[in-house]
Amino acid sequence: MATGVRLDLDGRPIKPMTICMIGAGGFIGSHLCEKLMAETPHKVLALDVYNDKIKHLLEPDSLPWAGRIQFHRLNIKNDSRLEGLIKMADLTINLAAICTPADYNTRPLDTIYSNFIDALPVVKYCSENNKRLIHFSTCEVYGKTIGSFLPKDSSLRQDPAYYVLKEDASPCIFGPIEKQRWSYACAKQLIERLIYAEGAENGLEFTIVRPFNWIGPRMDFIPGIDGPSEGVPRVLACFSNNLLRREPLKLVDGGQSQRTFVYIKDAIEAVHLMIENPDRANGQIFNVGNPHNEVTVRQLAEMMTEVYAKVSGEPPIEEPTIDVSSKEFYGEGYDDSDKRIPDMTIINRQLSWNPKTSLWDLLESTLTYQHRTYAEAIKKVIAKPVAS
Ligand code: NAD
Ligand code: UDP
């Protein structure tokens, strides 16, 4: 950890704080805990049902930050310790959620409960106890772009006014109710509105984060290795799994949807700035993404295939991709966001933050990690004779 007085963006000393981090055992939480332990004096009360992704920070007791991170295994749905832990902290960060698209249309009730109902007590306890809250929402609250409703050949589709997503101007456009894909976005939107209202009516100090496809090591799971064999994680882990097993990458509905991907380590820098600059972050909703890293899902598949060949030393298979319908891949009720480019004006103005890592570089470091972590385990699973 850096020694000496640490200053915020306005030159004021940063006081050490206690942070109650809910969902600390997940992908983003694990990187945020790492950052806070390595580079700040803050204490973390890490709450989650799992801790596999932060075990390296908790053990052994001799780690330099031992005593500054404490794991509490609890489910926020039904644990009376939650309010006490929020009260002990200066700041609460809520990351807990069901947030894999394969669940939105197949487990819509769990999705809505997790993203709205289960977050309610967190907001309430923060508001009642005058505690600051950083809540993780999603870029998916924007839904589809206005441009996606224009005729295919309309020149307006090229105009950023019809697709760049702005926190304080863009509408939230979801599909019909029977497209249960939008259960997640809708629940996230309602909790955003509730937090905003707590700020307006009761003075809650809040920051809302809208991540735009943060990716990197420890994201989700590899089916059959550290997660269920039939599970469907987000695209980075799906494609990593296909590459590790030397099977074609599955392009849902032709892989035409577009995404911007940001490296987890860049994105964590943004959260770090929010934590330590409350005067600049309170009352704000922030897009956090990398507008320069835009690709179609098909292009992502092609780039991952190329990068994986480089880091693994194994040439790609003959037919590296295969088309599948969304119905086949996700089931009934799937729908998709067409394009996601974050407007960066607000985060630039408030926190002077900009992402740094190119898509190629972030895929190279992430796929190096995937190869080192999983290649041997996959080989063993593949070599095992199937029980008859
Ligand atoms: P993740 O699934 O890796 O992490 C979520 C963590 O919350 C998990 O460890 C899970 O065990 C925990 N959790 C869920 N329900 C809980 C409960 N009831 N009690 C205790 N713990 C619980 O996901 P992530 O990618 O780290 O995402 C974190 C947040 O960011 C989520 O709110 C998600 O909606 C949001 N988000 C992430 C991305 C991204 O690009 N990774 C994009 C959009 C939104
Ligand atoms: N996708 C795909 N093949 C896969 C997994 C995902 O083509 O094996 C597509 C999915 O349909 C979506 C995009 O990749 O268009 C990103 O999916 P992800 O699960 O990462 O989440 P999203 O960005 O939709 O929230």
TrEMBL record:
<dbReference type="InterPro" id="IPR001509">
    <property type="entry name" value="Epimerase_deHydtase"/>
</dbReference>
<protein>
    <recommendedName>
        <fullName>UDP-glucuronate decarboxylase</fullName>
        <ecNumber>4.1.1.35</ecNumber>
    </recommendedName>
</protein>
<keyword id="KW-0963">Cytoplasm</keyword>
<dbReference type="GO" id="GO:0005737">
    <property type="term" value="C:cytoplasm"/>
</dbReference>
<dbReference type="Pfam" id="PF01370">
    <property type="entry name" value="Epimerase"/>
</dbReference>
<comment type="similarity">
    <text>Belongs to the NAD(P)-dependent epimerase/dehydratase family.</text>
</comment>
<feature type="domain" description="NAD-dependent epimerase/dehydratase">
    <location>
        <begin position="19"/>
        <end position="289"/>
    </location>
</feature>
<dbReference type="GO" id="GO:0071555">
    <property type="term" value="P:cell wall organization"/>
</dbReference>
<dbReference type="GO" id="GO:0042802">
    <property type="term" value="F:identical protein binding"/>
</dbReference>
<keyword id="KW-0961">Cell wall biogenesis/degradation</keyword>
<dbReference type="GO" id="GO:0048040">
    <property type="term" value="F:UDP-glucuronate decarboxylase activity"/>
</dbReference>
<keyword id="KW-0520">NAD</keyword>
<dbReference type="InterPro" id="IPR036291">
    <property type="entry name" value="NAD(P)-bd_dom_sf"/>
</dbReference>
<dbReference type="GO" id="GO:0102765">
    <property type="term" value="F:UDP-D-apiose synthase activity"/>
</dbReference>
<dbReference type="GO" id="GO:0046982">
    <property type="term" value="F:protein heterodimerization activity"/>
</dbReference>
<dbReference type="InterPro" id="IPR050177">
    <property type="entry name" value="Lipid_A_modif_metabolic_enz"/>
</dbReference>
<dbReference type="InterPro" id="IPR045869">
    <property type="entry name" value="Arna-like_SDR_e"/>
</dbReference>
<dbReference type="GO" id="GO:0033352">
    <property type="term" value="P:UDP-D-apiose biosynthetic process"/>
</dbReference>
<keyword id="KW-0456">Lyase</keyword>
